[in-house]
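Margin note: ligand = pyridoxal-5'-phosphate.
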Amino acid sequence: MTVRESQLAYEGLASLDRPRLVTDVPGPEALARIERDRRVTSPSLPRAYPFVPRRGAGSVVEDVDGNLFLDLNAGIAVTSTGHCHPRVVEAVQRQASELLHYSASDFYLPVYAEVCERLDAMAPFGGEPARSFLTNSGTEAVEAAIKLARYATGRQYLIGFYQSFHGRSMGSVTLTASKAHYRTNFGPMLPSIYHSFYGDFEYLEQVLFKRIVSPTEVAAIVVETWLGEGGYLLPPEGWFGYLRRLCDEHGILLVCDEVQSGMGRSGKTWAVEHEGVEPDIVTAGKGIASGLPLGAMIARDDLMVWTLGAHGPTYGGSQISCAAALATFDVIQEEGLLANATKVGDVLLEGLRQIQSRHPILLEVRGKALWIGLQFPDHDVATEVELAAFRRGLLVLTCGDDAVRMSPALVFRKDQALAALEIFEEAVAAVEAEG
Ligand SMILES: Cc1ncc(COP(=O)(O)O)c(C=O)c1O
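Resulting structure:
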């Protein structure tokens, strides 16, 4: 395909405002592919529903049967600039033709340093100088934060929160406390990690610090700024101010995990900017490279005290992912995607509240910008709604114990939001009618 042809194909697909289904969903080709997949892949993969994508543009994805879906998952909050944004694709292609790999751990990659410069400048540290460490994924960014927090403070304990999700490698899964399933048969977990309750103002001080661990031994409080996998929840007013005060009082680092909430999904670069505090370390991933594997641990400069060789991967901050990240930062800025996230998010939230007023099984509509959680009576109902939406060509995903999330790309448009609302209401009504 020539550049012009691929641009036209992108524009044609991205301009659609609603799904177009040409087979039942899943279709015959999807079913055949799933059957083949099941014979060879790890059964641990947490497949949500039988969706088999082939190509995408913006917020539209075509499956292997030629069905066109409206995508409110964005590859699970990853494709921030939409699927295959031409500028991201072009940056990846250019970098791929120049140099595929040279390890940033052991040598100096200009594109790696450029990404760090941009991230450091974006860091929500109130203008304090920052440094970044790049990884392949969110979980590795969390591991890096755990290691740096221990290294920089000389303390071993960490505090996480129930309902939170930080990844599945051994350190991050120990902080994760959303489902026992993630830990079952994998113990022992990392020692020296305790959990408190997200949004609670008492348990940390009154129970943990009083009876279990002295705050003088705690290296960091690690918190998802907004709770993602746990249900797309927002914290209560003032809670981050409370956490910040506790950290300052006891010399504890505040680590905000923004792997899911960061990179514009909240309408600001970082969700913590809505909370009126400055963390000490931020972890990022998912949306920062529009779909290429990249994570980042961004810390205040004075905390980056670890020495040569203390930490570093072969692939983390790969040239290709870095090129995609730079294009992503430019697109978000130049196309005004933070403002778009807020504007289109408001349309979705308003429409969803109207749907809630007509359908009692939708118990709560919560969120900000393109971070939207929809509460249903239980997990089965939430799953039925997810599947009913899928069969109508709308991609959404369950989260928490009993919720559905909407996390479309930051390029999601108002016309697409209005179509999504119509289809979502049909799905909710169908589940409600089945009783
Ligand atoms: C808040 C948060 N932290 C960390 C992770 C782990 O990221 P990854 O799956 O890239 O390892 C996730 C993934 O969903 C997440 O939502």
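The chain has two domains: 3-71+336-434, 89-334.
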